[in-house]
């Protein structure tokens, strides 16, 4: 294994470890710190609306600083939720799985085993995995799956891919 691959694996592990530590240590001090938008309404998301579909990450809306970025190859960053509380992901050249919880519109995604291949300098795999580790809520908007991350109300946008047979 060359040094660049080892460093990449180390960086991915460091990001995942930091994300898990942050999840255990963060707490919103004030509900007014969240950006108020119409998608903040607490709405129960039926499992059958999100399960057994390969969702493709198509964009990211960040609030601080305000920006909207488009994912160049959505088919390389997918997540499929199963009805039994597990998920499988594709993060560019890596594959993984884990468990999730969904109550009303509140969601948490727990990391699980994942391959740690180096996908190249243009890959968004580290960002994708970090964002998934910070998911706090889920909603549906215009047929798109929206996963809210962190305390700022950043939003990951997903488009429908293939229907997955269980």
UniProtKB/TrEMBL annotation:
Coiled-coil stretches: none
Gene3D superfamilies reported in the protein's UniProt record: 2.40.128.270
DUF306 domain span: 70-158
Protein name per Swiss-Prot or TrEMBL: DUF306 domain-containing protein
Species, as recorded: Methanococcoides methylutens MM1
Lineage: Archaea, Methanobacteriati, Methanobacteriota, Stenosarchaea group, Methanomicrobia
Pfam families xref list: META (PF03724)
Source taxon at top rank: Archaea
